[in-house]
Design brief:
Number of helices: 7
Shape: globular
Number of strands: 13
Radius of gyration: 18 Å
Strand order of the largest sheet: 2-1-3-4-5-6-7-8
Structural class: alpha+beta
Order of helices and strands: HHEEEHEEEEEEHEHEHEEH
CATH topology of the largest domain: Fructose-1,6-Bisphosphatase, Chain A, domain 1
CATH architecture of the largest domain: 2-Layer Sandwich
CATH superfamily of the largest domain: Fructose-1,6-Bisphosphatase, subunit A, domain 1
CATH class of the largest domain: Alpha Beta
Largest sheet: 8 strands, mixed
Strand content: 25-35%
Distance between the termini: 49 Å
């Protein structure tokens, strides 16, 4: 059975321990659905509690490392070479609606490069993890991106900009270009799991814009270590902090990119 470095094990342990609280909270949310405001308030509290748990566990195991997360922003560490990039609950809307498609997302950045990644769905107990140069795994199984080369056979994942988010008109243009030439589009509501599922070959590709570093930093490493190709949605170098992504295998990537570019005109 493959095992990662001590640092990867620290990240996995932190994800699993944080998951215990989220699973309990997920069960409570199902009971709160009758109260619209009550459920939303409860999820906000669950998110904050999960982030605090992650922060405490990771800081204790790796004191001095920086920490970048949605709620607390950037916390500078004494070790300027390492930063954990964390989303304690990616897929908050799913969580709020009792949809079991959400994840704890942890990436470790060293000197500006992501070198370790963990994406964990506690409901399905699927643990996706990767280490730079050592491959990507789902629990103990090695991952490879899908081998399809024909766009017409491909299923792609994406996210739809919702109320208050920019880019809806652009998204509709891209959707129009792509849906005429592919087998299907899926919108499951967790960027972290969309990337993990692309690394696992379940999706043939994934694109999205206007994301945050904690949504996609871990998934970027999962893709490359599973033999895939990842860039910005415009074909530039992938940078999690820029919040735009296109991931697939090397054969489909230029075909998808060509259609995304056509949507710009």
């Amino acid at each position: 059975m493959p095992t990662g470095s001590a640092t990867v094990q620290v990240m996995i342990d932190a994800a699993r321990k944080t998951a215990r609280g989220l699973i309990r909270d997920f069960g409570e949310v199902a009971e709160l659905q009758v109260s619209k405001k009550g459920a939303a308030d409860y999820v906000s509290a669950a998110d904050l509690k999960a982030e605090q748990t992650l922060y405490e566990l990771l800081s204790k195991a790796r004191p001095g490392y920086g920490f970048l997360a949605e709620e607390r922003g950037m916390v500078e560490g004494t070790d300027k070479t390492h930063t954990f990039i964390v989303d304690p609950l990616d897929g908050t809307t799913n969580f709020l609606h009792s949809i079991p498609q959400f994840a704890i997302n942890i990436a470790l950045e060293r000197d500006g490069q992501v070198v370790a990644a963990v994406t964990y769905n506690p409901v399905s107990n699927e643990l996706f993890w990767a280490e730079k140069g050592k491959g990507a795994y789902l629990n103990d199984r090695r991952l490879r991106v899908a081998a399809r080369t024909k766009l017409m056979e491909a299923v792609l994942a994406t996210g739809i900009p919702f109320a208050g988010r920019t880019g809806h008109a652009q998204f509709l243009k891209e959707l129009h270009q792509l849906t005429q030439r592919i087998s299907g589009v899926r919108r499951f509501g967790s960027a972290a799991l969309d990337l993990a599922w692309t690394a696992a070959g379940r999706f043939d590709g994934y694109w999205e814009r206007n994301l945050s570093a904690w949504d996609i930093a871990a998934g970027g490493l999962l893709i490359t270590e599973a033999g895939g190709k990842i860039t910005s949605a415009d074909g530039g170098q992938f940078d999690p902090r820029e919040g735009t992504v296109l991931a697939s295998n090397a054969e489909l990537h230029p075909q998808i990119l060509e259609l995304l570019r056509a949507a710009q005109s």
